[in-house]
């Protein structure tokens, strides 16, 4: 590859032949598109280039292998045989019993009586069973009342009154000064049985409690199992525990079990703050690790409008922790389809094995006694196909990132200074190729956006929601075809240059772009910089090793395949790491960017582009015809549409207390882009004529938002309906009236309200007090 290459160009009949030398007589590239005004002509076919069919086959095999690895990683929930310490069958019985009560919103009989009764019965049975063992088990039912403000969903103040917490303290019979906390919640949103969110976590915790309480060796520290009954009301029960319970002062760290999907693997997506010893504990103890610091930084950036009890323990308790969540099948999260039968026993087994092992490790660790001593910076962590976790301090990562970046720039600088590269000519070629690469990405992105716009204008948006592979074929074919087209056209800019050298040049471009990304992320202090670091380090090392091998083996087909696939497979292994759905786009970007140079090693791309064009045309026609409906009621694989509906009666008063207007209706909010597009044909009354208009002079535009999430729903409708007649009407009552010594009257009311001052008024102070008893 480093040797000279001669490309012979033949002029028309009757003219002189000439030879373009690659090293000594190379023409300037990206500038000189012809010789002496002669028309462009293709060089002779290089026999060492890959045939088009072989190249397509190799790429297809690579993609299939990559897909198979990711799929296997996600589906193989338990690696090896269970140890027997955690009984998933018994945990499943708990899950089925808890969910059999149905939806369990805060305050309902199902939540406050039935579920609480079942949990207490199981805990008391464990207490009796383990009474003769080395541990003591204490049960405390807490019903806290309190208030707090939180900067979440636009910011609001939350007040709670006599909610339910079940706290179970497991410790050696001699007592424990330092405690580890494990938290789950058993309440649900309305209309969902909440099997994954979060009954399965409570079932796992019951079985972990049973296992730890029955072990013969006493723990060094205690463990609190908190079953909280008010999480869906925006994290109220966890606040009540960590700020008011007497045991909270002894808690040194916590594990929070949550869900953003139904079943599958539980992923570590938040740790800290700082306290790298917690990540090290998970790495050392977890039987089936699954973790990514990328998920942590994406979640904490606020891109995902969600939060967990992790935030309450961190901000109000000032204690570090680990946040885990089930993430598979988020389509049915918070819906009626979140049922126990959708959670595999293997999923329960892997979660139980991990939680039990990590809790046991931390409860025996000396670091728990004084966790503040080990608080020093963040950690970079990620797993490899769920087999092992790689973790190292962020400060070490910063040094490593800059070392890799420096090595890359030195590599490029050395190439620029090599004899035969002409110094400035190589830099010019590299800059030109970088421009071509960036242009290809811009044109590719523009093409995909145009396709998406056309699909939207045709009224077929969100078809991907229920037909993922159809969207891959449509947008993937458009993006890949445009990328190949741009680089195929770019080949014509280079005369007297072998395709192997072009592939080598665009390999350098990939390194340069990833290196720039690496430096930018590192300078902004993001641990996710490990991703571009791997995309640079492994391909660069492989490139240098294979370059030496080429000098001895020549340009045979095996060497070419090794050259292309060795660094391509290693650099694209990151797609296997990024298994979370919200990182799928980034994974595809990585896969395409690191294969730019591969285009230049193929003799022709005409048939490949023709095939991609055919796939795109067929898929676009099928999508345009409405073959792919975005939603599905299939019980095996539901894709429900999310609609928030409230039956409300509104009464508006002026400043003098007089009624200005009164109406009743069904207030409808759609939480996706299609709005009521697919509902109007079936319910004609819900149309554009009943679409709401925001009244800026009224709180939340004059509509009864239960939570301040107006910014999440830009489209809503108000369908006239009969007046609300609740069985237990909401009352506005005067609790007390008192005349003070300085001539004012103090009145105390009981009501539920959303309050906003009038435009000409300024709020100076307010107090949300505890409930006043008669």
From TrEMBL:
Membrane protein topology class: Multi-pass membrane protein
Location of the Endoplasmic reticulum metallopeptidase 1/1-A TM domain: 426-561
Keywords recorded for this protein, A-Z: Endoplasmic reticulum, Glycoprotein, Hydrolase, Membrane, Metal-binding, Metalloprotease, Protease, Transmembrane, Transmembrane helix, Zinc
Cellular component terms (Gene Ontology): endoplasmic reticulum membrane
Pfam families: ERMP1-TM, ERMP1_C, Peptidase_M28
CDD domains referenced in this protein's UniProt entry, alphabetically: M28_Fxna_like
Subcellular location: Endoplasmic reticulum membrane
An example Gene Ontology biological process: proteolysis
GO molecular function per UniProt: metal ion binding; metalloexopeptidase activity
Transmembrane segments: 48-70, 384-412, 433-458, 464-485, 505-523, 529-546, 608-631
Cofactors that this protein relies on: Zn(2+)
Primary location recorded for the protein, binned into one broad class: endoplasmic reticulum
Record-annotated Endoplasmic reticulum metallopeptidase 1-like C-terminal domain positions: 638-754
Domain Peptidase M28: 165-358
PANTHER family the record matches: ENDOPLASMIC RETICULUM METALLOPEPTIDASE 1 (PTHR12147:SF22), METALLOPEPTIDASE M28 FAMILY MEMBER (PTHR12147)
UniProt record similarity statement: Belongs to the peptidase M28 family.
Name the UniProt record assigns to this protein: Endoplasmic reticulum metallopeptidase 1
